[in-house]
Amino acid sequence: DAGVIQSPRHEVTEMGQEVTLRCKPISGHNSLFWYRQTMMRGLELLIYFNNNVPIDDSGMPEDRFSAKMPNASFSTLKIQPSEPRDSAVYFCASSLGARAGGNGELFFGEGSRLTVL
Amino acid sequence: GENVEQHPSTLSVQEGDSAVIKCTYSDSASNYFPWYKQELGKGPQLIIDIRSNVGEKKDQRIAVTLNKTAKHFSLHITETQPEDSAVYFCAARETGNQFYFGTGTSLTVIP
User: Fold this and answer.
1) Between the CA atoms of A76, A77, A81 and A84, what dihedral angle is there, to the nearest 10 degrees?
2) Fewest CB atoms within 10 A around its CB: which of A17, A30, A65, B65?
3) How many angstroms separate the CA atoms of B37 and A54, rounded?
4) Dihedral, A67, A74, B43, A45 alpha carbons, nearest 10
5) CA separation for the pair B84, B70 (Å, rounded)
6) Quick check: A98 pLDDT over 80?
């Protein structure tokens, strides 16, 4: 069974450029989470979706960040325009909630390491 | 919202010794407590979890205990090995809500 798949694994870009990170959750999972990890702030929740609907985006830093989940098997996190302080590892994670018959375990992808110069 | 605190932030043990990492949470509605291991350059991986109707759970060298009254839970690793060296995160969640993570413990097992 394939796990959570993220792309790209590494991205180096220049300040002001648009960045799009992609995620394919585990098939059948109904919740998807985007996290950002830095040394200073640890794991921060940016946004999460239940059944493709954004539930809580209070962690999205500012309007430069946006996330979409057009269907159950795909999500994107976009940063436009990117800034050096956005440099971090971005993780996508998915789970099948208890209310949907799952056990609520959260599975992470391998992350996308973003460097903004 | 929930607040999860994790201690210590770094931990060094001799190979073969035990390691204990502790977390506290604030929201009594939280009912699911997973532990994750993150190796360098990889995503966090679930290693063990416990639900609020259980006080202890064991899986080989790893055990987790939960004290609901005191709102704390702990990870115990016995007979540590160099491959246990990693960053460990605790988390708390109420069903249907988001996961709240601790700040991580960097464990080093000295051969």
Assistant:
1) -140
2) A17
3) 27
4) 30
5) 28
6) no
Looking at residue A72, the DSSP 8-state letter turns out to be T
Which residues, at least 6 apart from B102, have a Cβ–Cβ distance to it below 8 Å?
A: B4, B5, B6, B23, B89, B90, B91
Task: Please give the Cα distance from A65 to A115 (Å, whole number).
Answer: 16
- Contact B49/A108, CB-based, under 8 Å? no
| pLDDT tens per residue, range A15-58 | 999 999 999 999 999 999 999 999 888 899 999 999 999 998 98
Whether pLDDT at B107 is above 70: yes
Phi, psi dihedrals of residue B55, rounded to the nearest 5°: -100, -25
Please state, in angstroms and rounded to a whole number, the distance separating the CA atoms of residues B66 and B6.
14
Query: Across the interface, do B34 and A106 touch by the CB < 8 Å criterion?
Result: yes
Cα torsion angle, A25, A95, B92, B36, sign: negative
Question: Hey, is the C-beta of A90 within 8 angstroms of any chain B C-beta?
Answer: no
The β-bridge relationship of strands B45-51 and A31-38 is unpaired
Rounded-to-integer distance, Cα B38 and Cα B89, Å: 8
Q: What's residue A40's pLDDT?
A: 85
Of A84-98, A100-114, B19-33, B74-88, the least confident: A100-114
